[in-house]
Design goal:
Number of helices: 15
Helix content: 40-55%
Distance between the termini: 67 Å
Structural class: alpha+beta
Number of strands: 14
């Protein structure tokens, strides 16, 4: 496999291993990002969440955070990060390191090799004790993850969204919790983390994205790290979509809740095609994704039915979420108004001014994609994840310019409301 345009060159190094070189000529910094995309598993989801935290603490050559911080400081203050994200029914474990380019090293150091050694060491050479992860690191990061999961309930906006997702996805693979499950943290051990780590290394599709470094040197170091690792890489999971179902309403009551939260989840019913992305972007901007959207201008500003109200789209699962904060007594009216705005966009007039205001807003936001190394890398890896031909930001902007009013309506007409989740206060509290 080989792909090239003016902004990137992408080639396969081995089965399930690709390297993508991105143009970073205008920056004085460089970046190496390693992505491992692997199938999510319900039984090891909690281990995967804790594993990402443990890996960020250090690796074999820098076995603790102090040694790692010292090493990064020696490299002119380089930055290292490890993260776990969702991609539909897959997970993506990522590690990235950013620092100054080789050309700016004061003593002519080979910074490319040093950066690659750290980021590859973080993923491929973790610090182990007796063949498993360090028990103290596992204990600390298990407690960290427990606090994170407990904090979900304190953010009622986030809690409502996640509760709605749990009803929407149910027991399907798309519903596996990214952060794991609180009751299963007691089962996380150094050995269970090592078993999940081994599974990820074996099954993951590996993508390395390089910017401003010697890509040949990075590719060579990567292949040496992979030598001897037993690999059975799985192909990317296909995009999914929940089937359209009759609407299900859920209400959860919490004592003393000041502001009610409403989350409504819609489905396309079929997986989103990559060529629909431009129309989806403009549809979201018109409906609820911008300050000139119908939900913002009408439901929030004109009708005063909510404190906030916005829509967002998840391309990997073909789903749209509308999230709002409302007065307890206004929840039913707000839901009705949200649905009315969607119906109006589907069949009512859309003025040329409205359409172009939203288009210009999107284009303005997209103009900044190439202003940072992170923005460029994120853009291209998302394109890789979605499948199909890799679009440059220029390609995407041109596609957005070509989206018509009817393209927007076609997307919005596909959406069906499946779940409405209301978080409100207890009835007795409301009448106290």
């Amino acid at each position: 496999m080989f792909e090239r345009n003016n902004d990137l060159e992408r080639k396969q190094l081995a089965p399930g291993v690709c390297i993508t070189t991105l143009d970073a000529s205008k920056f004085n910094r460089c970046c190496i990002t390693l992505h491992l995309r692997f199938p999510a598993k319900r039984e090891s989801a909690t281990d995967a969440a804790v594993l990402a935290l443990v890996l960020e603490r250090g690796y074999a050559a820098c076995p603790d955070m102090t040694a790692l911080s010292r090493r990064l400081a020696e490299l002119y203050g380089a930055d290292l990060g490890v993260d776990l994200a969702s991609a539909g029914t897959d997970r993506v474990l990522s590690a990235d390191i950013c620092g100054i380019k080789d050309a700016y090293a004061l003593a002519g150091e080979n910074l490319t090799a040093a950066y690659a050694d750290i980021v590859f060491g973080t993923i491929f050479d973790p610090y182990l004790v007796d063949g498993a992860f360090d028990p103290e690191a596992v204990r600390i990061e298990t407690e960290t993850q427990a606090r994170r999961l407990e904090a979900e309930f304190n953010s009622k906006r986030l809690y409502c969204v996640r509760q709605a997702r749990r009803k929407f996805y149910g027991d399907t693979p798309a519903g596996i919790e990214l952060g794991g499950y609180p009751g299963e943290l007691v089962n996380v051990t150094p050995q269970s983390l090592k078993a999940e780590y081994d599974r990820i290394l074996s099954t993951a599709y590996i993508d390395v994205m390089v910017q401003g470094v010697d890509e040949a040197r990075v590719a060579d170091m990567l292949l040496k790290k992979l030598d001897g690792i037993r690999r059975d890489p799985h192909p990317f999971a296909a995009p999914v979509a929940m089937p359209a179902t009759p609407l299900r309403h859920f209400k959860e009551e919490i004592p003393g809740l000041t502001q009610a939260k409403l989350c409504m989840l819609f489905t396309l019913g079929v997986p989103m095609r990559p060529d629909q992305m431009a129309a989806v972007r403009l549809a979201m901007a018109l409906y609820g994704g911008s300050v000139t959207s119908r939900l913002f201008l009408n439901v929030r500003e004109r009708d005063h039915l909510c404190y906030y109200c916005s829509s967002s789209f998840q391309s990997f699962t073909g789903s749209m979420a509308v999230n709002s904060g409302v007065e307890h007594a206004d929840a039913a009216r707000a839901e009705k108004a949200i649905l009315k705005e969607l119906d109006d966009l589907r069949s009512g007039p859309i003025t040329a001014e409205e359409l172009e205001d939203c288009r210009r807003s999107l284009l303005s936001g997209m103009a900044g994609i190439e202003d940072t190394l992170g923005g460029i890398e994120t853009w291209y890896y998302m394109e890789v994840l979605r499948g199909g031909p890799v679009q440059t930001p220029d390609d995407a902007r041109a596609a957005l310019q070509a989206v018509t009013e009817e393209d927007v309506r076609t997307v919005l007409r596909q959406l069906t409301l499946s779940v409405s989740y209301l978080l409100t206060r207890e009835e007795e509290s409301a009448h106290a």
